[in-house]
Design goal:
By secondary structure, the chain is of the alpha/beta class. It has two domains: about 1-220, P-loop containing nucleotide triphosphate hydrolases (Rossmann fold); about 225-320, Beta-Lactamase (2-Layer Sandwich). It is about 30% helix and about 20% strand. It has seven helices and twelve strands. It has helices at about 25-35, 115, 135-150, 170-190, 210-220, 225-240, 265-285; strands at about 1-5, 15-20, 50-60, 60-70, 95, 120-130, 155-160, 200-205, 245-250, 255-260, 305-310, 315-320. The strands form two sheets. Strands 1, 2, 3, 4, 5, 6, 7 and 8 form an eight-stranded mixed sheet that branches. Strands 10-9-12-11 form a four-stranded antiparallel sheet, with helices on both faces. The radius of gyration is 21 Å and the shape is globular. The chain binds guanosine-5'-triphosphate (GTP). The site of guanosine-5'-triphosphate has 21 residues, from helix 1.
Length: about 325
């Protein structure tokens, strides 16, 4: 369930701030992950002209705001007390769209660093891997990190090395080389800006496979206070039930909210997502009803060795037995 957010002042929900150059894929990610848009339909998306804020509210553990920034967003030069702030750059951002309403004067607010970073947040910088050289984009990233850190030292910084698909990225080796190169350059730029203490996580992503869901899952987990407890519970579960791996999924978005401490491999994750799709499809045909939030009515247990348990609030627990 994703809806527009009526005001900027809601500090109770953590924020995921999607930033990065124009056409790098920010809106596509939002649409594919949270609004089930088929990836090829993103080809027809128009550029974002004002900050678009949405609320993801699928279940008690998945509640956050997603801010989609225009590629050429600059912080407003007018500071909170009304004077000239240290923002620099053109005054571009500062308006907020609401679904179906466009930018009405009611939605307008000045967006300075405090307005953007002054709450628990993850900065997700989307870098188009097919758009080398990245120099300009990385300079922009470091500028954002510096601004974010000055307001919110616990800001999570994540870089999506995005669009690693198609003919350009056929081999895994090429992807790994690209990631290594970008990480190296980011570290260098951060050192030059005396920001080497900032931890930046990089993910290779594409909307054409599950990588974007895996990466987004990790971000959501970082913003979830209950994560250590959930991980512990899943650890107990797999050891008590002799399971190989367990995930706690949000059915609607297919993001996993927690997993046990065994390593995650992409194939298992993909298999689980496919299985959820099958279970949802079959359940729809054979009588388990789902409401608009994807919640099953009552718990359902499969007798198969790979079991799926529907919990309340649209989450699914996936269990896989250890092969004897
Ligand atoms: N090959 C490939 N193309 C992608 C991917 N993600 C997005 N795109 C394409 O990139 C183009 C730009 O996507 P948008 O989502 O509009 O980019 P944006 O960053 O929101 O752009 P602005 O609003 O201008 O800042 C579209 O044609 C998408 O189809 C991806 O993972 N792989």
């Amino acid at each position: 369930m994703i809806s527009s957010v009526p005001q900027l002042t809601d500090l109770t929900k953590p924020r995921i701030l999607l930033m990065g150059p124009r056409r790098s894929g920010k809106t596509s990610i939002l649409r594919v992950v949270f609004q089930k848009m088929p990836p090829h339909e993103t080809l027809f998306l128009e550029s974002t002209h004002a900050v678009d804020i949405r609320l993801a509210n699928n279940n008690p553990f998945l509640q956050f705001q997603i801010w989609d920034f225009p590629g050429d967003f600059f912080f407003n030069r007018v500071s909170r007390n009304g004077g000239e702030g240290g923002g620099g750059g053109r005054e571009l951002g500062g308006s907020m769209t609401q679904e179906g309403e466009g930018e009405g004067p009611k939605g307008r607010e000045l967006l300075d660093e405090v307005g953007v970073f002054g709450a628990p947040a993850a900065l997700v910088f989307v870098l188009d891997a097919q758009d080398e050289p990245y120099h300009e984009a990385l300079t922009r990233l470091v500028d954002l990190v510096a601004r974010g850190q000055s307001v919110n030292p616990s800001l999570h910084v994540v870089v999506f090395i995005h669009k690693v698909d198609g003919d350009l990225f056929l081999s895994d080796e090429h992807k790994v080389d690209c990631q290594r190169d970008v990480q190296h350059r980011i570290a260098q730029e951060l050192r030059d800006a005396s920001l080497e203490h900032v931890e930046v996580s990089c993910f290779l992503t594409s909307i054409y496979d599950h990588s974007i869901f895996e990466a987004f899952s990790k971000i959501v987990q970082r913003l979830t206070h209950q994560l250590p407890v959930m991980e512990n519970l899943l650890n107990y579960l797999i050891s008590a039930c002799k399971m190989e791996k367990s995930f706690l999924f949000d059915v609607v978005s297919r993001l996993y909210l927690a997993t046990d401490s065994n390593p995650v491999d992409m194939q298992t994750y993909e298999m689980c997502v496919d299985m959820i799709d099958v279970v949802v499809d079959v359940s729809c045909i054979y009588g388990v009803k789902y409401d608009a939030k994807g919640e099953a009515e009552g718990p359902v247990y499969d007798s198969d060795s790979s079991s799926t348990i529907h919990l309340s609030n649209g989450m699914v627990l996936y269990l896989r037995e250890v092969d004897e």
